[in-house]
Amino acid sequence: MHDLTASNRRLTELLGTLATSDGIGSTILDGVKVMRSSQSIPRTPVLYEPSIVVVGQGRKRGYLGDRVYTYDAHNYLVLSVPMPFECETEVATHGPLLAVSIGVDLHVLSDLLLKMEHTPPPAAGEDGPHTHGMYSTQLDAALSEATVRLLECLTQPAEARILGPQIIREITYRVLCGEQGGALRSLIAVNGRMSVIQRALERMHARYADAIDVPALARSAGMSVSAFHHHFKAVTATSPLQYFKTIRLHKARMLMALEGLTAGVAASRTGYQSPSQFSREFKRFFGATPQEETVRVRNMLGLEAVVATTLE
């Protein structure tokens, strides 16, 4: 415990240096982002890419269906598929929330699993946590110390380029060996439920502007529509139609925030036929109008205001 406490202290110190302003910041390494929040944030819809999130200070709670996932100085979060969920942020009494997000690279994952072929996977049943696309689990000293080394090398560009990828590989390995590493293992199993649903999710993310065809997705997965619905909900805690609608709304939000598109253009780009329907669904989902949410997201990301464009 002493080692973990010391590691967390150093982790927090480094995050304080790297995350200098509120919001989500990029680093010199692709896929590694730092997070800072100086104030508590109530439950808000978010979309995380497949990633490992380690918190130095403060606490976050993820709400997915009827499940609640806490990630803080004692627990880390893993998302093995792109996951929309609701997130609540609590700052610490002595400072802001500080965390780092490390993207899950499927090529690194595959290579590690090939080398780990004789390592028995963690035990879990078919309906256990390994079938879910999101989980939190207890942080151990080895993973915490590897994360500290990753943050230390980020302060030196040369070290980041040379040592960073190897440390990310080690962090992925530590998670694979962890209590619930089976969720990442199952992504690579060619015929496993998780990998089949992962391919369906990738198709949804790539073609979010097209109409969704659930029967076609089920056929591609080699399942009946009812079986596809069942396994999809086991991984994402929602239905294919609801997941797809959520993805569209998140994509539209980022188009408005990052590219300065108007609500009407963002609606069209994400497959909506009716701008008024888009605005209604957007406000119901995010609890704010497209314009209000765009301002909030830009502030969260530390971006300057841009003039909305109507260009197609």
Q: Topology of this structure?
A:
Blueprint: H1 2-18, E1 23-26, E2 32-37, E3 41-48, E4 51-57, E5 59-64, E6 67-72, E7 75-79, E8 83-90, E9 97-103, H2 106-115, E10 134-138, H3 141-154, H4 157-176, H5 182-188, H6 193-206, H7 214-220, H8 225-236, H9 240-259, H10 263-269, H11 275-286, H12 290-300
Antiparallel strand pairs: 1-2, 2-9, 3-8, 4-7, 4-9, 5-6, 5-8, 7-10
Task: Kindly describe this structure.
The structure is a single chain. By secondary structure, the chain is an alpha+beta fold. The chain has 12 helices and 10 strands. The radius of gyration is 20 Å and the shape is globular. The protein starts with a helix and ends in a 12-residue tail after the last helix. The relative contact order is 0.12.
